[in-house]
Amino acid sequence: MDKQIVNGFSSNELQELFHKAHLAKHRAHCPYSQFRVGAALLTTTGKIYTGCNVENAAYPLSTCAERTAVVKAVSDGEKSFKKIAITSDVEIGFTGPCGSCRQTLAEFGLDMDIYLISPNNEAKMYTLRDLLPIAFTPQDLQKPRASHDIIL
Amino acid sequence: MDKQIVNGFSSNELQELFHKAHLAKHRAHCPYSQFRVGAALLTTTGKIYTGCNVENAAYPLSTCAERTAVVKAVSDGEKSFKKIAITSDVEIGFTGPCGSCRQTLAEFGLDMDIYLISPNNEAKMYTLRDLLPIAFTPQDLQKPRASHDIIL
Amino acid sequence: MDKQIVNGFSSNELQELFHKAHLAKHRAHCPYSQFRVGAALLTTTGKIYTGCNVENAAYPLSTCAERTAVVKAVSDGEKSFKKIAITSDVEIGFTGPCGSCRQTLAEFGLDMDIYLISPNNEAKMYTLRDLLPIAFTPQDLQKPRASHDIIL
Amino acid sequence: MDKQIVNGFSSNELQELFHKAHLAKHRAHCPYSQFRVGAALLTTTGKIYTGCNVENAAYPLSTCAERTAVVKAVSDGEKSFKKIAITSDVEIGFTGPCGSCRQTLAEFGLDMDIYLISPNNEAKMYTLRDLLPIAFTPQDLQKPRASHDIIL
Ligand SMILES: [Zn+2]
Ligand SMILES: [Zn+2]
Ligand SMILES: [Zn+2]
Ligand SMILES: [Zn+2]
C-alpha cells in the first residue's frame, strides 16, 4: 500500500484543506463518545466541504464527519471528489476512517486521496482504493447474475 | 394528533422554506430508488439548511434528505431547530419521514414542526412529538438503571 | 393512542415473550453506551426470535435489539410479525424503541403490538401504527410520481 | 495482499460453511435491489451462524447478510469469529463486502478469514485485516487525546 508522510510540504491547497478539517472538528456533536472528528472534502471543481460527527442517543443514528462532508457536497450538486482530510483528537498515530465512510466515498469513485491528520498537523496519505480493497461499488449492482447456484 | 392543512397561507417564512425544499429535491442522488426527496430545515436563529437523499450502492449506507439537512446545520454550529419542510415526487397524499429521520431530529428536541409538502405545494403540518410518540431521547440514557431484573 | 397497562395478566404466550426479552438483554454487546436492551419478537406462525443491541466502536454501525430480532426472523424465513416485547435496564417508566427500529418493523406491516417492559416485568402495550404515525412504508415507493413540481 | 484461490479443496468445515452461505442467500429480503446476498459465519467455538440481506423501503434501514450473521452470533453469546463466507448471485468474479460489514466484523477482531464465494462455489480468501487496512477499532477510542490542536 502506497503511504506517504506528508509533513512540511508546501501545497497551499492541502494546507487549507487540513486547516478546515481541524476547524470542522470543533463543531462535533459527540456527547456520547466524546470523540471529535473533523473532515474537509475537496471536489474536483475546487470547492471544500467540511463535516463533523453528529451523534444520536440512539447510537446507530449517529453519523461521521466524512459522511457529513459528502452529503453537504452532493446536496450542493458536487459529486466528484479529489481529496479528503480527516482528523480527530487522537494524539499519537493516525486514525483511519470507519468502514462506512470508506463505502460512502466509494459511491463517487475510488480514485481519491485520503489524508489522515494528527492534531499537530502531521499527515499520512492513502488512496481510497488502498483503504477499501475489493470495494463494493455501483458497478457490482450491474453485473450479470447467475440464474442458479450450486445448491439447486 | 394535531394536523393542519396548510394551503394558501401567507407566511413568507414558510413559503421560502417550502421553496427551498423543492429546490433541494433536485440535488437528490438516488440512482437506486429513483425516489427524490428534498428537505429544508429552519433553525431558531432563522437560518435555513437544505438537504436531499444521497444513496449508495450498498443500500444501508444511503441517507435521507432530512438527515442531510440536520448534519449541515450541526456542522455549522446550529442545533436548535424550529421547522422542517419535506417533499418528494409522490403526487397524491403526504409522505411521512422515515423513522430514522424522526430519531435524528429528536436528538435536538421534540418541539419542532414538520411540514409535509406535495409537489404542487400543498402541505400538512405535524409536530415531531406527534410523529415520534414515546420517543427515545438523550434523557433516556440518563435515567436510573435497575441493578436486577425479574429473571435474576 | 391506545395504551394499556399490562400487569398481572395471565397469557402464557406473553409471559414467555417477556421472559425471553429479559433473557436476551443479558447478551447485549454495549461497551460504549452500557445501555442494555433485549427484545423478543413473536411471529404469526408462533415462533419467537430474540435480540440484543450490538454496538460498534464506530457508533453508527451499532444496531438495536429489535432489529437483531427482526433479521434473525427474516433470515429464518419468517416475515409476518405479531408482537414484540422490548426491555432495558431503565428502572422507572417505559422506554420506547428508537425511530430506526420502528421503521425496520414497518417494512413487514404496521399491525403488530409493541410491549414495553420494565425490569420488574410491568408492561405497556402500543401498536406499531401508534408509534409510527404517517409511516413511510413499501407502498410509498409504488405511488404515482408527479412529473413536475411547483418550482419548474 | 494475501489472496488465495480456494477451489477443489477438501476441508469439510469450509464446504459446510460455503453450503450454508448459499442456502442463506435464498432467505434474502431484497425487493428493492433484487441483489441477494448470503453469509455464513464460523465462530472459534465451531458454531455457524447464517445471514441474508434484509432491505427496507427506507433504504438506509436495510442491512447486509454479513451483519445479520454477526448479530445472530452475538445475541447467542458468541463474539469470537474465525471465518465468514459471503456469496451473491453475481456470476463472474468475486464481490467484496461493503465497508459497513467490514467495520461491523472489526469490532470483534481483525484476525479472521473472509471467503468470497461465487454461485458455482469458487472462492477467494482474504483476511479482514487485508480488507480493512488502517482499521478503526475499539482500541482507537482508548488512545490518549491531545488537549489542543494546531488551530488553537
Ligand atoms: Zn465513519
Ligand atoms: Zn429518513
Ligand atoms: Zn432502535
Ligand atoms: Zn454490507
TrEMBL record, chains A, B, C, D:
<feature type="binding site">
    <location>
        <position position="98"/>
    </location>
    <ligand>
        <name>Zn(2+)</name>
    </ligand>
</feature>
<feature type="domain" description="CMP/dCMP-type deaminase">
    <location>
        <begin position="12"/>
        <end position="139"/>
    </location>
</feature>
<keyword id="KW-0479">Metal-binding</keyword>
<feature type="binding site">
    <location>
        <begin position="53"/>
        <end position="59"/>
    </location>
    <ligand>
        <name>substrate</name>
    </ligand>
</feature>
<dbReference type="GO" id="GO:0042802">
    <property type="term" value="F:identical protein binding"/>
</dbReference>
<dbReference type="GO" id="GO:0072527">
    <property type="term" value="P:pyrimidine-containing compound metabolic process"/>
</dbReference>
<dbReference type="InterPro" id="IPR006262">
    <property type="entry name" value="Cyt_deam_tetra"/>
</dbReference>
<feature type="active site" description="Proton donor">
    <location>
        <position position="66"/>
    </location>
</feature>
<dbReference type="InterPro" id="IPR050202">
    <property type="entry name" value="Cyt/Deoxycyt_deaminase"/>
</dbReference>
<dbReference type="GO" id="GO:0008270">
    <property type="term" value="F:zinc ion binding"/>
</dbReference>
<feature type="binding site">
    <location>
        <position position="64"/>
    </location>
    <ligand>
        <name>Zn(2+)</name>
    </ligand>
</feature>
<dbReference type="GO" id="GO:0005829">
    <property type="term" value="C:cytosol"/>
</dbReference>
<dbReference type="GO" id="GO:0055086">
    <property type="term" value="P:nucleobase-containing small molecule metabolic process"/>
</dbReference>
<dbReference type="Pfam" id="PF00383">
    <property type="entry name" value="dCMP_cyt_deam_1"/>
</dbReference>
<dbReference type="InterPro" id="IPR016192">
    <property type="entry name" value="APOBEC/CMP_deaminase_Zn-bd"/>
</dbReference>
<dbReference type="InterPro" id="IPR002125">
    <property type="entry name" value="CMP_dCMP_dom"/>
</dbReference>
<protein>
    <recommendedName>
        <fullName>Cytidine deaminase</fullName>
        <ecNumber>3.5.4.5</ecNumber>
    </recommendedName>
</protein>
<comment type="similarity">
    <text>Belongs to the cytidine and deoxycytidylate deaminase family.</text>
</comment>
<keyword id="KW-0378">Hydrolase</keyword>
<keyword id="KW-0862">Zinc</keyword>
<dbReference type="InterPro" id="IPR016193">
    <property type="entry name" value="Cytidine_deaminase-like"/>
</dbReference>
<dbReference type="GO" id="GO:0004126">
    <property type="term" value="F:cytidine deaminase activity"/>
</dbReference>
<feature type="binding site">
    <location>
        <position position="101"/>
    </location>
    <ligand>
        <name>Zn(2+)</name>
    </ligand>
</feature>
<comment type="function">
    <text>This enzyme scavenges exogenous and endogenous cytidine and 2'-deoxycytidine for UMP synthesis.</text>
</comment>
